[in-house]
Amino acid sequence: MLRSYALGVALLSKCPCRPAVQPLPELMATSCRISEGFVRLNCLEVKIISVYGVPRCLPEATSKNNLLLAWAYQRATVSCVPTIVAGDFNTCPTELPAWQAFQDLGWVELGAFAAQVHDIHLPCTCKGATRFDTFLLPPSMFQFFSSADVLAEDHLFDSHAPMRLHLHMPGSKPARWIWPLPRTFNGLLLEPSSLAPVYNSVAAPLALAFQDSTPEASPGDKLRLWSVAVEESVSKALHLEYHAAGGRQTLRGLPKAYSGRCKPVHRVKAQPPSLPRQGRNGDPKPFDEDTSVLGRQRLRQLRRLVTFAQGLDKYHKGKYKGPLGPDGWPVSLDKEWAAIVGASGYGRHFPRWVLQWPCFPVFPLLRPDAEFVADLTSFIRYDTEALQKQQVATKCKTFKFKLHVDAHEFGGARSFVRVKPAGKPPFTCVKVTSSQPAQVRTRHNHHLWQLQVPDVSKFELHCPVSYAQVAGQITSTIDNCVMVLFPADDDCVLPSNGLLCRCKHESSWSAVVGSLMDFWAPIWNRDNSEEAADISCWPRYQQLVHLLRSPCPEIEVDLTDVGAWVHVARKLSSSKATGPCGWHNQDLKLLPASALGDLSKVLNSYVSTGFPHDIMMARVAVLSKVASPEGADQALVEESLLSGSDLSGFCLDLRKAFNFLPRVRRSFQINGSLGPPVPSTTGAPEGDPVSVLAMIAVCWLYVALLEGLVAPKAYVDNLSWTADAPDNHAPAMLVLNDFVQALSLHIDWGKTYQWATTPVSKRWWQEIGVAFLPSPEALHLVSQVKELGSFYQFRRRGSAQLFGERLQDAHQRLQALSTDPQALPTRAKIVQGGIWPFLFFGTEALLPSATAMQQLHGAAARAIVGPHHTLSAFAALGLLPNVQDPEVYLLCHHLSQLKRAFRVSPDAAFLVWDRLLGEQLSSRATCGPAGALQALLRRNGWSFDDTGTFKGPLHCQFSLFSFSMRQIRDVIELAWADNIQDQVLHRNGMTAAPVPHVHLTAQVLRGFKPWEQQYVARHFCGGFMSGAEKQTWSRMDTEHCPLCGEVDTKGHRIFSCVALESKREPYRACLAQVQANHAHWVHMPYVAWPFEASVLQLLLAKFRLPEPAPAPLCSRITIFTDASAINTQCPTSRVTTWAVVVGSCPKAPTDLLPSDLQGDCLLSNFSVVAQGCTPGPQTVPRAELAALAWTSRWLSGATDICATVYSDCQPAINLWNKWVNHGWLAISGAANSDLLRDLPRPRNFLTVKIKAHRSAQELQQLSLWDQWLAAGNNAADVAAKAARANLSAALLDMAATTARKCEEERVLLKSFCRALLDMGVFEAKQRQSTGASQATAESCDWQTFLSRARSWQMPQPRLLPFPETWEEDWSNWPFGVEYGTKLIGWLQQLSWPVPPAVPAHSWQITYLELSRSRARDWTQGLFYLVQRFAKLFWYGVEGRFSCLVMEMLGYSLEERLQGCGGTFTAPTCVLVADQCLRRIEYLHSCGMLHRDIKPENFVFRGSTGWAEEAAVITRYYDGKHANMRTNLSLTGTARYASINAHKGIEQSRRDDLEIDEHPDEHLAIDVRFEPHQLPYLGQTVAGTEENYPEDDLARASSVDEYARKSHTKMMQVYMNWLTAWDMDMAQDPIPWVLKEEKYRKIREKKAFRIYLATTRSLGFDERPDYRGLRKLFADLRTEIGPEEVYGL
């Protein structure tokens, strides 16, 4: 055991090593579990981080090891130095959350890397069971890997076998090959708009050169000239800003590193980042682990200055011994000073850099004095130290900054990436095979042969080989011969000539690049030069094109359209990498329109000639590819399966399709280093625009050839078709064969499959269709498949296997999200926008089970809020902003896909809709989108009709065809609140909780800061546990408040804790209101959904637009529309009205006079023609659109009328204009579009935007006509407000009541949350300070420790699980057999907390206390035998009897009672109660219920009570608590059964206690020992047993109903007595048997009163407080008085 507490790590090296410049932080260093150092391996310096993890047997080992791994990651990424992390992690490092950070950077664990890449399977390192001793390797070390092994026989420390890593280090530092590309000049210009005039002046003389008529001297001259013009323009613009910006611009021109675009690019060597070399004796050492070039340059300059100062000092002291010049000055000092003056790293000139500082007025270019050198050295030392430390500190602090920027500017994009599984790994290792003909030269013996080969360089020393399929090993190489050693146990005869084969995994950069070039070069150079340039070399393709029935439509694209270039440039992504041309997207976005216009002319000239070859280059990172062919339409498949019609299909995937398209030169990039370019005649990078255009042409040809035979579909390189008759596949297969041969394409038959919905089509594929395939193995007739992320199934009953894999992946992502450092809002967005879309994409044909959704609830809630025991997942995902419950998301996803199908594929959508409206489909037979959506709606309580109206809980409804998807989501979220209420009613204090208002609650939470949301969300979701609750989960937690000592409940913290009074005072009124009217807010605060809101929604949904008035007769009309709303800030109670006003201008606009706009004269110009309440959703834009729709229908009855409609709502005008210009399909998915459905599109109808609510000053500045228009808009506004008068008073009152309730609760909840925050923060600080002071006092006050030692108390024990039989082997035990036997006996009888908990408070048990307890037990003979159940020897069946052999004990409790004259004394009853409670507690701790507690089942051994008879024992806990059931038959003995058992409710722990300790006779075994009679004793039922009532008793929902339906007098009396008992208990819980005078002492102590109230108030799955209940009787025994004779 003590070995688990060993600490310490070390690094021992035979190679040169040194410690880190900066020591580990104090927290890391004091842990004694992590260290770091640098080791020089040949030419490379490697950082080694050693880790010793916390043993898993210690508390919180996993979390502590995760922290250690996170520390290792932090230290490994401080600099770019190659790092190896190794040690005994005491857990699998790849299973810790911190491993994700390593994995994102490409790190691997040595065991997995050796097995997967090099086929080296390492054994376990610890007792043959685990491999926790391992290495973690970065990608930069892969190329040096040679081998790895485990010294299984050498246990250098304890039982761990050392793991060894063998590296093959090069003689020189490996160089990286890169393209020297210019930097982007984005951000250099202070005003990017200043670039346009400068470019115009620079490019004016070059206008003629950019014309098509001007030829190029060499390909690419125009593009290079244009790039030079742009760079010159940027340089001049910077120069102008430098002189005009007043010092804000520091650049005088474009630096050299930012120029050189479109120049030929060649690979150059770049040295990898490295640490500064270690100085010689006396040289300044590095100040930090800085790998920057600038840091090394500054350190080198400092060392020069120190060396110069030392030489100068020697010269002045006459100790200089080097060569001197003619004037006696040392020659070396002149050279050293010249190097100092010309040093790099200080801008253009080091002296100029020095002179910019005020402390250096002059700089001597020759022979400085000692004082100047000393000052300069001191200054450079300070600068170098500051620079190096700044570089390292910047890298360390960048992580938090990136998190902040990521959350605020990119919506948590990096966190989205972090929760995804690891991407497809790049190629870092290849399998190199070499086979050469070999001839035997010399045979030394049977096992050692010398073979001659053509190229001996392919075989390395000690590498494994095979000759004639016999394995061997190279022992030496001489000239062109190799010596091979074969196994001694292999006696086969080898031929004189054969093949010598060598297979090896190579990780070096050259081997990987060379292997890739060998593989891809034949593919990329498939075509010869003629085929790449002349279409006549493709005769079969030309024949296919001529067979087409219709020509390919031509696409006219004007490449010189400057506006199009500007539009595309502004849409370019800024995150893309710089191309080989040197241009970055950010550069192109800054260019003015004139520059883009010149670029369009240049590129247009390349249409006929092609791009220059030096531009057509690409970097290639080779990844593994996943098959994802496109296939069938599941809606058609579902219709075929349900109707029985025939449907079948064929899906194929083209192999390397993009690589057989237009040519480009490529260079492989491995580990950041580029290989030599590979020329090609075919192949463009996948995703390149040229290759995409070519694939579009290929897809078009494929579809055009197969149309008429089958129904073809093409998605890039995935081609498929469906057919309603199997015979149609034959001609389609023939056409497909001609198609692929004509274009020299290849089909990947391993990814190709076939499917069918009927046996006829299946037989056709198996018997006939297989003949059209290249081989029978190419037939893959599937019943389900996943394509492009979507699931398809081709049988009536599908399988959940494919979705189960994605579900498991989603759980892994949620687990990764739970460790993400982002705040709660960002994590919620990641679940909503990253995990849910990934999980449910393409699941339209599936119905996830309710169990799977329940698991998702919990995992998502814990990932967002945190791992809190009492958290309600339904509340977390329903009340928090930015996230939806998975059930809600899935329903919205299905509906959105159906709406989209109506727009893009109406035929398939109507198939789904008709099937949805048809017969009800079984959930188990879901085979398509209709069945899945129907079952999902039914599961969530939604109904629908053929009009597209869906109705759900809380009177929520929406229209599929008229509501936008956003509106539908809002409605479904509101309806889901009803389910949230159902799921939280069972929780403590939530019995009377109302339905939550999810939108308003989320709005309140959204108003807090992210860290505040994290805290408040725990309250919203019920995730906070009081001390009393924690004590029910763990006995190591105290139920008392650590601040004030009172019982710690949630209400105590909020309302009454004295320590928090100062923070509670500002919120006294708020808390009082919450305590009085919102009691459930203590457990789960949220805004309640007003009942009036549901009724209001029903009423508003009934409104319709009024019938149009008679059409006007005039030819020109001016109309004003406006809308008005009440309760605008509360969408739940908002009511909107609209109005249409016709204006009649008395004169022409030019003839208007001021008198025409005065008083009654102006009012007479406007008349109201229509007004009303908005139907459906109540928004102002919808009300404005309703006015426009009514106006259009009104004017449609008139002919030749020209109308001008003025509206002040731009969204309504935009939707109206889009509908007028593009038709219904263009707006069918938009919000409020239902108002325009089936509306005649108007003629001569002009909508104009007018500004609303102008001020008096604005009106005075307007023309008379504009003033008249403003008056018309105001008249429409007045009319819209007046329309409210037409609404019913009940509706308005209902809206006002809803608004008032919502606003009151919103304000109250916001204030309550603020109070929780203030008190919570203060409480955390108080707890922290209290804990620190207690720790200090306990560690420093020796007297306190001694006083505590004198009064040690063992905590209330539970049984320590320990085997009753133990394999004793005392051969190596130094204390002898007797001691060991006693130790085992003591351990078997020991009481101890289970499971062992972390010591947390001052009453924790120490090892000293344990020893003291053991010594006391052995000396006094006191053993805590808490189990005391009869032993079971055998059970089985003998004949027709079931037998049970148990230990024979003494008299039962009932027999002792009768032996004592039917009476026990009060002390005896109390003692019996204590022992019975202990037996029951142990039984419950084993997860079992007795269910038949009675005196007959308690027996004695000596004077100790034992529990017997387990006939009706059952398990209530098996991983989780059993669920509560009702309407059950009675189990146990009716006389002693609990009230809940008689009511037919499933029994739990509370019922065993109620039976055992209830202080009344009809439910007790203790107090029954007093002399009295029960009211129903003696009442018997003939023909029935006592244990059970009559079998035909009807099950009832209440006790009264049960009694009413009973047929026996006994049960009638019994039930009446139970009802009276409940009424008596409500008035006086003291039972009547205790009201006699002789029990005065018991009654006065009220122990039974408290016990009864406690047991009767327990919840079904609530854990009783056994210790507290026993303490009641222990205190009662003490207070009753002198002990009497127990009489047992």
UniProtKB/TrEMBL annotation:
GO MF annotations, alphabetized: ATP binding; nucleic acid binding; protein serine/threonine kinase activity
Positions of the UniProt region annotated as Disordered: 265-293
Domain annotation Protein kinase: ranges: 1322-1688
Highest taxon in the source lineage: Eukaryota
InterPro entries: CK1_Ser-Thr_kinase, Endo/exonu/phosph_ase_sf, Kinase-like_dom_sf, Prot_kinase_dom, RNaseH-like_sf, RNaseH_sf, Ser/Thr_kinase_AS
Pfam family, one: Pkinase
Keywords: Kinase, Transferase
UniProt-listed PROSITE patterns: PROTEIN_KINASE_DOM (PS50011), PROTEIN_KINASE_ST (PS00108)
Record EC number: 2.7.11.1
Protein name: Casein kinase I
The species this protein was found in: Symbiodinium microadriaticum
